[in-house]
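Interim report, section 4.2 (structural modelling).
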Amino acid sequence: MAENVVFHFDVDGEDFSSAGGASVTVKKKLRQLGIAPEYIRRVAIAMYEGEINMVIHANGGSADVIVSDDEIKIVLTDTGPGIPDVSLAMQEGYSTARDNIRSLGFGAGMGLPNMKKYTDTMEIDTELGRGTTITMTVKIA
Amino acid sequence: MKLSDVIDSLSLTVVTGAADGCFEGVYAGDFLSRAMSRVGAGDLWITIMNNVNVIAVASLTDASAVLLAEDVSLMPDALDAAREKDVTVLSSGMSVYELCVALGKFGTFS
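Predicted structure of the assembly:
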């Protein structure tokens, strides 16, 4: 593709009924661009987890997806409380989700681990009281 | 494996969506992030979760169908989402365990 294709989404906080909407839209767009299904699946999983995290923990945020010839970059930005201990948050099964969130099926402590697992690179820039930016890439052949 | 074969054999109810597809494997579980990671494309996902986020996960993972155990009914907004996203949803009065045992008789799935 000659130029990068960019998608931007605002993610509503505390709105679980529409949570995942940006991921579903990105999945459709990537299909239209002819991206291979295995890459789309990885992007969709990583982005959905990030989207849900923003809804659960950060009162929403924004998501940007940049599609270039060799990679798909996902940038998730929020102005939430930040992550106090990133290494702890990266452990499978560790969760700070509230009980009402768990009753919806979230809070398994797999969000960040899944995001790392399904992407080729992931960087977390977080500051307590300021927010978090997570940048992930999926390399495409 | 054809969905229609297990629908007939286990007397499953088709809540919404096409029932003429196939499934490649089976996953049973309720935590959405676990399901997000483990439900493979073309899998049948057995759960007792019935909210709208189940439909989002099923759609994003390209699950063949969601199978609700224990006669769980989809929440109204989840039913709307399933119709909108063309997600097939089945239901049964059997427990998750009973469904897994019954499906195991069809062969080994991933």
